[in-house]
Amino acid sequence: MTLGVATGVLGTTPDRIRMNALTMGGGFGRRTLFARELLRDALIVSREVGRPVKLLWTREDDVRNGWFRPATAHRMRATLDPEGRVTAWQHRVAGASVLAYYSAEGFAAAKQRDLFVMEGSELRAYPVAHVLAEHVVTERRARIAAWRGIGCGHNAFAAECFVDVLAAATGQDPLGFRRRMVGDNRRARAVLEAAVAMSSYGKAPPGRAHGISLAPYNESYACGVAEISVDRASGEIRVHRFWAAIDAGLPIQPRNLLAQVEGGIVFGLSGALREQVTIRDGEVQQSNFHEYRPLRGSEIPRIEVRLVPSQAAPSGAGELGVPMTAAAVANAFTALTGRHLTQLPFLPERVKNALA
Q1: What percentage of the chain carries pLDDT values higher than 90?
Q2: Over the chain, what is the mean pLDDT?
Q3: How many whole angstroms separate alpha carbon 285 and alpha carbon 287?
Q4: Residues 6+ away with beta carbon under 8 Å from 179
């Protein structure tokens, strides 16, 4: 991609370009998705001044000119047999296509199937006989890209909240219902039972509640439990503790694996509770961290991550910590209040509206 941008801007050929690849930490998708814009600008400036340049965006540039995760809406339906088992599952996602914006050619080659949006809708943890996942491609209204967790971030939120709804509809508790749903999926059952044991699930202190979410990513498995309280007057949700059990295959660097998942949990909780971009008249309204507000250090819960022994091939954990977070918090909220949160992020006004 870098060579493609450079040859296009400079009107030259790849054999006349030398690229020095630098080590990057915390770049997420920007090492690829942003290359077309940042590299193009740097090349144009360098060409005009006739010397090397270093292009640096301010935080305000960054917040106001980012590529955003596409807004999605979800419709969930399922069929239950007389014993309360799920026999059919439908997950319909409405949202703009990241792949079509990123590469129209790639979208066409993929036969208009966008894993950036639909990943995680395949219901990997639960062996349901009949599964239908559909993407209703909507009009794009902003520059969009993948968020950490890719499609699993929003799809696991919808799916795992729906599992709790189904459990309630059949008169079962969320844990027992999931135990039946995982069936013979040994890896899913292992992380589920490990997370339950770690957290003493269902035995939260007075004024608090637990919520659970089983959210695989690709070939890796994760299950999270959130312990929360709610300030009904302010509408603030406080996550006090978060437990996660993961099976990312054979761990090659266990400490790095734990760090990746811990960071992903913080990332996911911050997105679930705080982070929001608003666009008015085509302009992003936020400019820096006083307006685009991630979790503060004092708001981060105590996090415990356990590696479940596995002989599966290494399958990665860079995205694994995010998808389980939002549903675990939302399900804990339902357990505590009897009400549902269905829109991210869980801003105080939305919480108060749900409690009204």
Answers
A1: 85
A2: 94
A3: 7
A4: 189, 192
**Is 90 exceeded by the pLDDT of residue 37?**
no
Is the pTM higher than 0.90? The answer reads: yes
149: left (phi over 0), alpha (psi -120 to 50) or beta: left
Using alpha carbons only, how large is the chain's radius of gyration in Å?
22
CATH 3.30.365.10 range(s) for the chain read: 72-355
Which of these, 322, 321, 319, lies nearest to 344 by C-alpha position? 322
The gap from C-alpha 128 to its chain's centroid, in whole angstroms, comes to 23
Q: Say if CB 151 and CB 120 are below 8 A apart.
A: yes
For residues 199 and 240, is the Cβ–Cβ distance under 8 A? no
Instruction: Compute how many other C-beta atoms are within 10 angstroms of the C-beta atom of residue 323.
Output: 32
Is the pLDDT at 81 greater than 80? The verdict is yes
Q: Which two tokens stand for residue 309?
A: 């022994």
Between the CA of residue 352 and those of 71, 334, 337, what are the distances in Å? Answer: 22, 13, 11
CB 35 within 8 A of CB 55: no
Q: What is the largest CA-CA distance in the chain?
A: 75
Task: Indicate if the pLDDT at residue 22 is higher than 90.
Answer: no
The token pair that represents 85 in the structure block:
């088992």
Fold classification of 72-355 (topology level):
Aldehyde Oxidoreductase; domain 4 (3.30.365)
For residues 178 and 135, the answer to whether their CB atoms sit within 8 Å is no
Compute φ and ψ for 99, nearest 5 degrees. Answer: -65, -40
3-state secondary structure of 284: strand
Between helices 174-182 and 186-199, what is the axis angle to 10°?
A: 160
